[in-house]
Specification:
Length: about 210
């Protein structure tokens, strides 16, 4: 079974899934982006007194390459590179063509390989987000971070992404940042942030989301 990481807590069991939401669900400055930046060590932690511990290991004590090899992110705004679909899925050529095709099949994008073999200029927003999901499937990192990944897609694509995540990452740690309640309904724990501080940290049934 999979789990997720709550950045303000040491998570040792690999059996749960957590979500981060704003107290107001739409407010700015709650601290969600800072959580992601801290987890990827995009900010200088030398001036802080706390630590981020994953499975008993302080992430400040491992190399950046090692840390980030354990992390995958599906961002709110899809990040694609110039080049082919194959290159976007596996830029370092670490996987076989068969593995790449399987990742595309998982998100129902195999047809794009023949439709857009040389570029991405004609690919629509929903397809771009699904490419990011396929990239995460191929990488198979221990921890998947979902940063409001369905905020800019239609309902059908939203549902597909939720189903793919459930099917492909059930044995992984999942951390979800969301403003849509339906995207966090199946989380094991919810961390609710307010002005950068923890307002609640509990199972969904014990938190008033009204």
């Amino acid at each position: 079974m999979g789990s997720t990481i709550a950045i303000l807590y040491s998570i040792h069991n690999i059996n749960s899934q957590y979500s981060f939401i704003d107290r107001s669900l739409f407010c700015l400055g709650a601290g969600k982006s800072s959580l992601l930046q801290a987890l990827f060590r995009l900010v200088d932690q030398s001036s802080t007194t706390g630590s981020i511990v994953i499975d008993g290991i302080d992430i400040g004590c491992v190399s950046l390459n090692q840390l980030r090899s354990y992390l995958s992110v599906i961002p709110q705004v899809p990040i694609l590179f110039c080049g082919t679909l194959r290159y976007n899925l596996d830029p370092f050529t670490e996987h076989s063509d068969e593995e790449c095709l399987r990742a595309f099949e998982a998100v129902e994008l195999k047809q794009l390989v023949s439709k857009h073999p040389d570029g991405l200029s004609q690919i629509v927003a929903g397809e771009r987000q699904l490419i990011c999901v396929a990239r995460a499937i191929l990488k198979r990192s221990h921890i998947l971070l979902i940063d409001e990944a369905t905020a800019r897609v239609d309902h059908a694509t939203d549902s597909m992404i939720q189903n793919v995540i459930a099917d492909e990452f059930g044995d992984r740690t999942i951390l979800t940042i969301a403003h849509r309640l339906n995207t966090i309904a199946n989380s094991d724990r919810i961390l609710m942030l307010e002005k950068g501080e923890v307002a609640y940290f509990d199972v969904p049934s014990n938190i008033d989301l009204s």
